């Protein structure tokens, strides 16, 4: 069966859990190995197509397209404790090093905008920190190039549809926010010379840096939870490549603003007649809410927080887009933006330095800080009846 642009859009956009008005899904539109009559469909999206070009608001969260509206199952399942969390964190640190050095080099070379200078070079908490203590840019690039080669080959539309379907239909563990933070302590990277801190201490560092700068409490809490999506590595990821790394849209041409753009040559979407077009399945001004970003810890946590917290849109944007460097740092994909996205971009840029530059060997004390942050957690993840802390479905 030959694919047409409109046929592909209609089938992807009209799907519902029940099968939608399309009935069976034509095989060319399915991820490899899926059954067209299984009744297990990729995701739940609104009836209108992305080409409809509408502006999403907070009240329209449930009408998002590939960002989608996910209902998580209320069934607990243990995480896989045998995965190499230290290796994941080593890769994640190397990715951060590259992004730190790229930003610093732009400032040093005079190619940064004044806004970037203000954000990356003049952050209050970073004023006394010597960025040259981080490993050199070239060494970090060598560490991450093979990672990005694998990520760029495997992050396809088909995989992203399947990942979202798995997120929607499979069981996950249940635990509180603080328990999730403690779980991430298994990701301590003892071989990392940049910091000897555990994940919970890094999260507290980011939150405390934001707090010292007198940012709103929701902003502080966002710093605390922003990397909890790395729990995905212990649950349902295929490897490191669908957990960490810079994110980017799928379903349209891979932009030159993405790190190592040449490594997409083995991604089948780069040769697809629709996905390889500049706009692909999208239209200019469709809005970032309606874009399917490459699956990873940001997207995973975004959907959890969107459904189970009262965090504002700015916080959700910080969580979802903080690894979307092609957009918030390199200036790519501006054609996708609507009016809301201008505000969200400013929020992400305000958050980014706290993620990158708050690493240090200054040891925060979780026991002393827990009471303060538990108040914030209970404010934005309000406990349900009978709970003292909100139990989150991961």
Could you characterize the architecture of this molecule?
With 394 residues, the protein is an all-alpha fold. It has one domain (63-393). It is 41% helix and 1% strand. The protein has 13 helices and two strands; from the N terminus they run αααααβααααααααβ. The chain has helices at residues 5-13, 85-108, 114-121, 137-154, 157-169, 177-183, 199-212, 217-225, 297-308, 313-321, 325-328, 339-357, 366-380, and strands at 174-175, 392-393. Strands 1-2 form a two-stranded antiparallel sheet. α2 (85-108) crosses α4. The chain is globular, with a radius of gyration of 20 Å. Residues 11-76, 119-135 and 189-193 have low confidence and may be disordered.
Order of helices and strands: HHHHHEHHHHHHHHE
Which range best describes the helical content: under 10%, 10-25%, 25-40%, 40-55%, 55-70% or over 70%? 40-55%
Count up the domains: 1
The parts where pLDDT drops under 50 for at least 5 residues are 11-76, 119-135, 189-193
Oligomeric organization of the protein chains = single chain
- Widest sheet: strand order? 1-2
- Measured distance between first and last alpha carbons: 38 Å
Question: Using only CA atoms, what is the Rg?
Answer: 20 Å
SSE class: mainly alpha
Instruction: Write down the overall mean pLDDT.
Output: 75
Strand percentage, roughly?
Answer: under 5%
Describe the global form. globular
Task: Work out the helix count.
Answer: 13
């Amino acid at each position: 069966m030959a694919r047409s642009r409109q046929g592909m859009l209609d089938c992807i956009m009209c799907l519902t859990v029940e099968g939608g008005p399309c009935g069976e899904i034509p095989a060319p539109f399915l991820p490899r190995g899926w059954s067209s009559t299984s009744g297990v469909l990729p995701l739940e999206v609104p009836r209108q197509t992305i080409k409809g070009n509408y502006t999403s608001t907070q009240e329209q969260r449930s009408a998002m397209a590939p960002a989608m509206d996910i209902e998580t199952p209320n069934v607990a399942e243990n995480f896989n404790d045998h995965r190499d969390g230290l290796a994941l964190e080593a890769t994640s640190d190397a990715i951060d090093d590259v992004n730190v050095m790229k930003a610093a080099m732009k400032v040093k070379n005079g190619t940064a905008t004044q806004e970037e200078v203000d954000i990356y070079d003049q952050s209050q908490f970073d004023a006394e920190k010597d960025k040259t203590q981080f490993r050199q840019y070239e060494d970090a690039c060598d560490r991450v190039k093979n990672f990005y080669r694998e990520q760029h080959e495997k992050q396809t539309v088909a995989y992203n549809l399947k990942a979202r379907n798995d997120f929607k239909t499979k069981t996950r563990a249940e635990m509180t926010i603080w328990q999730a933070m403690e779980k991430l302590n298994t990701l301590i990277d003892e071989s990392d010379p940049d910091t000897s801190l555990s994940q919970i201490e890094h999260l507290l560092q980011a939150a405390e840096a934001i707090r010292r700068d007198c940012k709103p409490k929701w902003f502080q809490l966002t710093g605390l939870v922003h990397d909890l999506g790395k729990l995905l590595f212990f649950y349902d990821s295929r490897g490191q490549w669908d957990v960490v790394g810079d994110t980017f849209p799928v379903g349209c041409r891979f932009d030159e603003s993405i790190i190592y753009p040449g490594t997409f040559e083995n991604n089948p979407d780069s040769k697809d007649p629709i996905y390889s077009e500049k706009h692909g399945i999208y239209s200019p001004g469709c809005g970032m809410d309606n874009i399917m970003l490459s699956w990873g810890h940001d997207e995973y946590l975004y959907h959890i927080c969107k459904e189970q917290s009262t965090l504002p849109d700015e916080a959700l944007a910080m969580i979802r887009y903080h690894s979307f460097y092609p957009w918030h740092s390199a200036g790519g994909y501006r054609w996708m933006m609507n009016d809301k996205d201008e505000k969200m971009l400013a929020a992400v840029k305000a958050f980014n330095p706290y993620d990158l530059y708050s690493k240090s060997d200054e040891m925060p004390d979780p026991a002393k800080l827990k009471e303060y942050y538990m108040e914030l957690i209970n404010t934005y993840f309000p406990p349900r009846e009978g709970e003292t802390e909100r139990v989150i479905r991961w």
